[in-house]
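Narrative progress, year one. The postdoctoral researcher (J.K.) led the effort to move from monomer predictions toward full complexes, under supervision of the PI. The following entry was the first complex the group processed end to end, covering 699 residues in total.
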Amino acid sequence: MNIANNDDCFRSMLQGQSQLPVSPLMWLNKLRASAVDRVSALKIPTTRDEEWRFTDIAPLTKFLFQPADVVPYPQTANVSRFYLTEASIRLVFIDGVYTSQLSSNLSDLTKNSGVIVSNLSTGIPEYAAMIKPHLGGYVEFGDNIFSALNTAFLHDGALVIVPRDAQVKMPVHLLFITTQAKVVSYPRCLIVTEPNSAVTIFEDYVALQQGTYVNNAVTEITLANNASLNHIRVQRDSHQAFHIGSCAVSLARSSRYQSVNVALGARISRYNLNVLLADTSAEATVDGLTLIAERQLADIHTCIDHAKSNGTSRQLHKCIVGGNARAVFSGKIMVRPDAQHTNSFQSSRNLLLTLKARVDTKPQLEIFADDVKCVHGATVGQLNNEEVFYLKSRGLSDTMARNLLTYAFGAEIIDRIPIASLRCQLEQIVLEQTQGG
Amino acid sequence: MIYQDSETLLEVCGLRANVNNIEILKGIDLVVRSGEVHAIMGTNGSGKSTLAKVLAGHVAYEITSGTVFFKGKNLLNLAPEDRAREGVFLGFQYPIEIPGVANNQFLRLIYNTMRIQHGKDELDPLEFDDFVREKMRLLEINPDFLDRSVNEGFSGGEKKRNEILQMALLSPKLAILDETDSGLDIDALRVVAQGINQLTNRDNATILVTHYQRLLNHIVPDYVHVMDSGRIIRTGDKELALELEAHGYDWIGTEHCAILGT
Ligand SMILES: Nc1ncnc2c1ncn2[C@@H]1O[C@H](COP(=O)(O)OP(=O)(O)OP(=O)(O)O)[C@@H](O)[C@H]1O
Ligand SMILES: [Mg+2]
């Protein structure tokens, strides 16, 4: 493998960057420029890097990906199947480009409720004062070439600002649709919640074709005092695609972050989720489900960082791995010296459906405070034979019994998603996938 | 009830079985005809549950010799699900918890699978709901249990009632109920026993594995077998259970030895 060539490939990805419109905001231009610098300086990670030990990203460099030139406007019928049946606030992006025709009427929403949901590129100049302290402030791109690339291309994206005391009942659906092969998109989300507010965000990556493309996504979320946020992230990209995502969440005092992330798609996917309990009495729930088969690789790295006292975190991540697929879960729990009375529970549970399926799970605790309660554990296994026998003794065939148990294993996570129609969609996908393999 | 002209349902002959290369069943002979109730008693570890699971087809047990025929078919050649479909039902001593599978979904699935097997139409969720609620009412099971995961977090007695509910749905030819009475309070025992009695008729048979006479007060056995170290060492009528209740198993052990002349 020739490292220099791979890095060239990444620098060639920067080509389109100079065509981005220059922003009237100096700080934004500076942010992008420093990201461009980092892309030029950084090397593409290899399996020799500890953070990328299990995931060889080199196949991505074998193709040339460019941001989409012409973005087709898809038939509504083709995309409406991804819509939630519940009333929702929707932002749609086609190959990375905001598409107002498919999105909700956002100006009415802001007029009526004060809740700001907008395309980032138009929202930045309008709400610059509210955005500047946060944008690029949580996802570090200094040593991450993917986040740096995303920031270099920062343009269209999702902006959600929930004002003080607002309780947004409808879920906000951020729908990123890829319609073309060979393109790279840089989805970007910024979610800002003000004190005592509550909102549900559904970040959704889908494809209208099964080609090879790249989604390189960055999401930043900040919760003010006593704010509450449900964050559901579903990655159902094409099975030929590459998906690299980073999300950073910062929690202020007594705020609550509840998240479920689901990885179903992509040939190779990587998701970094960093949750910082920056002030006291914050609560984070970080659940996840990886469901992969064939030759898929799905790598999730999470870090839950308890910086202040009386925080609570709970994490259950499950992987169901079939075919020749490989899942990676690396979950770090950090408890800093000021984080006394932290209560943290982490569990990684993994189900291997075939002999060739593989999972690497690495829960890690780093505790620097003495008065804390932290429990973590990991299990890797096949289906429980006693459970299979129980079902068969009731007349269910071997296949039915195994499918039902596999489905149930995944359903435990899906059941935690607070959007009913999404739960149904995902349960159907799990059912199809477990029956298929 | 013993009937003169009844059909032979189960015929076990010289059955030996190993688990992890340890012999647990050491030559079992047992004949069960339709209409009959058999009780199997015996000390802890004597092999009662092993026999029950071998009959249901658990893969952990290796049959080393002997035969088992059910309605004239070689049962040992059938997979567990096929045995169930032929009408063998095992009520587990320790029912398995299945987190994530809703009880109502599970009950409907096993019921409809059985109906399809018998060439009948499936019940849709609404029809099934009425049907299962009626059965639950008879067994005095709280309908809330439909929405919970199968057996998950159920108390010991609740699990046993859920077993009998499954039996009621599947209407087996041969029900093998492994310590269905243990864990039941006095009222629950009466309710469950009544439920079992309602399900027994001329055409089916029941094997009750139990340690206590109190179940047999409600469900009167036609035969009582005593197991010890992987064998049936004594068979009698319902009086045998009363004698065991009064004198324990030691008494049988010595008598058994006396019969063998040792
Ligand atoms: N998987 C196994 N590995 C080793 N020994 C086993 C296994 N399963 C059963 N046994 C042994 O077989 C013997 C019979 O067990 P079984 O469960 O059939 O007894 P039982 O008569 O049902 O007892 P109880 O009245 O306590 O329910 C016991 O000694 C038990 O330890
Ligand atoms: Mg037993």
